[in-house]
Design brief:
Number of helices: 11
Structural class: alpha+beta
Helix content: 10-25%
Number of strands: 39
Shape: globular
Radius of gyration: 27 Å
């Protein structure tokens, strides 16, 4: 189906890239504006298959694309420019731009007219503002599908909750008449009898800025051969059987069939459940095993690097790791990191072959591990045969595959001299890369998407729909620095927590107060990430100096505690658990630090065993005092304390980034709560069991709890503070 996808939400002053999906480069596509506000003069270049839409006035636009198979319409809801979010740079076109270019829908519209007035209202301020957030829930009540919105005001915002406006939008790809839909401020209702195979509903919250959209799907899951309906049990979902007469309906491929009804409700932007419970481990494939372990001469019958990696899986299983991120494994220009790819369809010969790679993945699966494939889509190596044919040759069939800075110099970022950026305006490039996605998603459980900020948002939206249609549990993790909230709007499931990473570095170096770690967690909400967004927590990776080198050994032990006790999904970079000091050196297995390994192993076990430490646990800052005495003297700025709660259990976590043990007293809960914590009540005294669950030893002293670097303590009782 070549429909350009879910409709969009943007504001005047923002632009949007539009492209037919699943394109055939051999045919023509024509874009045009079908409907626009009366004052608009926007036109689209009708002969270009990939176009930029830049609205000139608020209102509802409908654009169309003519394809060989059909004509498709796409609704674009445009807000006044004054409602545009001020965020970090993103990429709608693949060549920079402003994030906030969203996908949504716009049939029917349910909101007051107060925000959609005349004039562009383009913002003239550059101060970053907080954004409201929204989460949709689907339900079935009698003979209606019900979509309920839970909007939230931005932190420190002046808008009352009752004044948040919600705009519901039905997907253009779904055949539902606006005449049968009813809406209120917080709710949309659709008669079941008016719905075909499925209906997708999108919504945003609007205050003085619009939110990242959320989406929910009702799917009858028909079988075109007339077989019994299959209910998708993707979590979270609500499965409801509805007894009706069989209907005839058409699926996305134009096939028709008779089916029974079994309606599945799925929140489309929810991360896969498995992905929020894992510990991720990055394997730098050309350094994790040494040459003595892997004979990479594929002309012989000896082992490959992948076979050697397989031999290390039991070590990782014993550590507690259950998700592996491999740095790129495709044919490349021999740079050891592997990101300069010369062949996107074949495994690098120095690592093995496709059979060896797939055997490794199977072995990981046998141990209950998932595997993330490092997907590099922004560029190819300059040694790629397409680039070699194109450079200096305007007549090359591949010349237009690349973006060019000059006749002989390709576009790239940061003056990187070994890569060349793809031209995503070219349908052949998009087709080529979609085929890459199809090939490798079949032998992975998720993609770690390299340089996600540099690839057009329109391509990520298509990629997401493409892989999620085939496997709703497939994980999409974006590398975007700094993170961008809009990337959770129909593009990615999980995000590198770049803000927390930077804060952990500053705290480790002694340049920031340890309590700023909690501010970093709050920042997710402030920039507009919805409550269901997932974050990967990391302190180092293959691009960064090792934390232990930059911040010292005790800070490195403390940061381990941060990764496994803060809300998010922890990630270790290979060797971090053994005290490795070289960034990309071969791992020094013989010099592994047992005490560091034990620290990580215990923390992984704790997070697995205690639900409050996971992504669903709330987090609350704690008032605490660092005691200054002869035995323990640590600056209070080096210590942070917080409480994690879930399932009627609470745990106090203390991190000490100082060089010596800290004696800490917990006085009461702070009235400030963090990241989706419940409404704050009166302060309460916190009583804890003095056993440090990380060490298994008592931390009790006459003056408080003594913490070397990480302490996790069970809360025994809480009483109102009088």
């Amino acid at each position: 189906m070549q429909h350009p996808g879910p409709p969009r939400f943007i504001a005047v002053g923002e632009s949007l890239q539009l492209s037919p999906r699943d394109p055939d480069p051999e045919v023509s596509y024509q874009w045009h504006v079908e409907r626009a506000p009366e004052s608009s003069t926007v036109e689209l270049p009708s002969e270009d298959p990939v176009v930029e839409f830049t609205p000139d006035t608020p209102g509802t636009f409908q654009v169309g694309v003519e394809t060989p198979a059909n004509n498709y319409s796409l609704t674009i809801r445009v807000f006044p420019g004054s409602l545009a979010p001020v965020t970090a740079p993103g990429s709608e076109s693949g060549s920079g731009g402003v994030s906030g270019h969203q996908s949504g829908s716009a049939r029917p519209v349910a909101r007051s007219a107060g925000v959609s007035g005349s004039g562009s209202g383009i913002r003239d301020d550059t101060v970053e503002r907080g954004r409201p957030r929204i989460q949709l829930q689907g339900d079935i009540e009698e003979d209606e599908l019900v979509i309920k919105a839970n909007p939230q005001t931005q932190p420190d915002g002046e808008t009352a909750h009752s004044d948040i406006e919600v705009e519901f939008l039905i997907d253009d790809r779904d055949d539902v008449s606006p005449d049968v839909v009813s809406t209120t401020d917080r709710e949309m209702r659709i008669p079941i009898e008016a719905v075909g195979r499925r209906v997708r509903v999108h919504a945003v919250a609007v205050t003085d800025v619009y939110s990242v959209p959320d989406s929910v799907e009702f799917n009858r899951d028909p079988q075109p051969d007339g077989g019994e309906a299959i209910v998708d049990t993707t979590t979270p979902s609500t499965d409801t059987d509805i007894d009706t007469q069989p209907d005839t309906c058409e699926d996305d491929d134009g096939q028709t069939g008779t089916h029974n009804h079994a309606i599945n409700i799925r929140r489309l932007n929810e991360p896969p459940e498995w992905a929020t419970d894992v510990t991720v481990y990055e394997i730098y494939v050309r350094g994790f095993v040494d040459e003595a372990e892997a004979d990479t001469d594929t002309d012989t019958d000896t082992d490959s690097t992948f076979a050697a990696l397989t031999e290390r899986l039991d070590y990782l299983a014993d550590l507690g790791v259950d998700c592996l991120w491999l740095t790129p494994v495709l044919q490349n220009d021999h740079a050891p990191h592997g990101y300069n790819i010369t062949d996107f369809f074949h495994i690098a010969s120095d690592l093995g072959d496709s059979e060896a790679y797939e055997s490794f993945v199977d072995a990981a699966h046998d141990r209950g591990m998932t595997v993330l494939f490092d997907l590099v889509l922004n560029h190819s190596a300059r040694d790629h045969p397409f680039y070699q044919d194109a450079v200096g040759n305007p007549d090359s069939p591949y010349h237009d595959w690349y973006a060019w800075r000059s006749e002989s110099e390709p576009e790239t970022y940061f003056e990187w001299e070994y890569i060349a950026n793809w031209n995503f305006q070219n349908l052949e490039v998009r087709r080529h890369l979609l085929d890459v996605v199809d090939k490798w998603m079949a032998v992975a459980d998720g993609f770690r998407c390299d340089m996600a900020w540099a690839v057009p948002n329109s391509f990520w939206r298509e990629l997401r729909d493409r892989v999620k249609t085939r496997d709703p549990e497939f994980l999409l993790l974006d590398e975007t620095i700094p993170y961008i909230a809009d990337f959770h709007g129909g593009m990615f499931d999980m995000h590198f927590d770049t803000t927390l990473y930077s804060t952990l570095r500053e705290v480790g170096r002694g340049h920031a107060d340890a309590t700023e770690i909690l501010d970093a967690i709050d920042q997710r909400k402030a920039v507009g990430f919805p409550p269901h967004a997932a974050f990967m927590l990391y302190a180092e990776n293959h691009d960064e100096t090792r934390y232990i080198v930059e911040c010292g050994e005790n800070a490195a032990m403390a940061v381990a505690g941060a990764l496994f006790t803060l809300p998010g999904v922890p990630m270790l970079y290979g060797g971090q658990e053994m005290g490795q000091r070289g960034r990309r050196d071969a791992l020094a297995w013989d010099d592994a630090r047992e005490e560091i390994y034990t620290q990580y192993q215990r923390l992984i076990t704790l997070r697995n065993d205690i639900s409050a430490l996971g992504v669903d646990g709330s987090i609350h800052s704690l008032n605490h005092t660092v005691v200054d005495n002869e035995e323990t003297s640590v600056d209070s700025e080096r210590v942070v304390a917080y409480e994690r709660r879930a399932d009627n259990e609470s745990y106090v976590c203390i991190l000490n980034f100082g060089e010596t043990p800290a004696t800490v007293t917990i006085t009461e809960t702070n009235t400030t709560t963090h990241e989706d914590a419940a409404e704050s009540s009166e302060p309460t005294t916190v009583n804890v069991n003095p056993e440090n669950l990380v060490t298994g030893e008592s931390a009790a002293s006459a003056e408080g709890l003594v913490v070397d670097n990480v302490g996790v303590f069970a809360v025994t009782t809480e009483s109102n503070h009088n």
